[in-house]
Amino acid sequence: MASATALQTRPAVAENNFTIRPFSGPLGAEITGLDINLTSDRDIAELRAALVKHSVIVLRDQRITPQEHVAFSRRFGPLQVHVLNRFHLKNHPEIMIVSNVVENGQPIGLVDAGADWHSDLSYMLRPSLGSLLHAQELPPEQGDTQFANMFNAYDSLPADVKKTIEGRRAVHSYVYRYRRLQALTPWRVDLTQKQIDEVPDVEHPVVRTHPESGRKALFVSEGFTSHIIGLPKDESDALLKLLHEHAVRAGNVYTHKWRAHDIVFWDNRSTVHYAPITPQHLRRTLYRTTVEGDVPF
Ligand code: SIN
After folding, report:
1. Is the full-model pTM beyond 0.70?
2. Phi–psi pair at 125, nearest 5 degrees
3. What structural domains does the chain harbor?
4. Is 155 annotated as catalytic?
């Protein structure tokens, strides 16, 4: 696991004085001393720059309400409302509950939200810029979330693979992933036609340019990418497998070990993430918002 090293202190500002410590691994930085309710526009710009640079920022010790979580997330852009309305937090449709807790025989949240590697809402025409996941109740073990750096994944591809994927587009499909996970998770009842209509399949470039840094990142995932357009199925499957294994290889992954009150804010334009399902006897609940991003190019 990457550790927090290489202290990098930002200049003090009167209202909020936080510290950004980059992790020593392939991505990520820890932010301490931040009061999200005191953030100025300058603070937000600085946090956004840290997100673009480090791809994942871990905001420690955020004892905040769902309302404050939503208000803070909105400072980065409009929020997206997840199609699975069953797991919206009451009175806060912008928050999706991620949880393995079952109450009265019913799951209180999406138990397998992270059950394979993916970039949140990549199945939308305007996929998510980033997600903010706030810890509510954490298990003592088996609750980690992993992140892979998709800038590095692209940069380190062999030249012939870069050539093969150049200019290619791929289909991202919510229904494709949902039906695959349905086979694993008994509570995944069939989607309604209305839900299916809300999330039609979309096409995105296999390699996208980050709209803020200009860096190129791989933009396919095990979770939502059903196929690469214009290739026979076996070739598309083999290429997606190769790209996926390359992206999540050891050395390109940061494993987040959650602490109480963490908010982890990740850039969905430059990462994919994965969180295996926590066993039922260890309770794990987190609240997630997702900020809308640009149409990938
Ligand atoms: C997600 O994929 O948004 C959930 C990640 C997690 O459960 O840690």
Report:
1. yes
2. -60, -40
3. 7-292 (3.60.130.10)
4. no
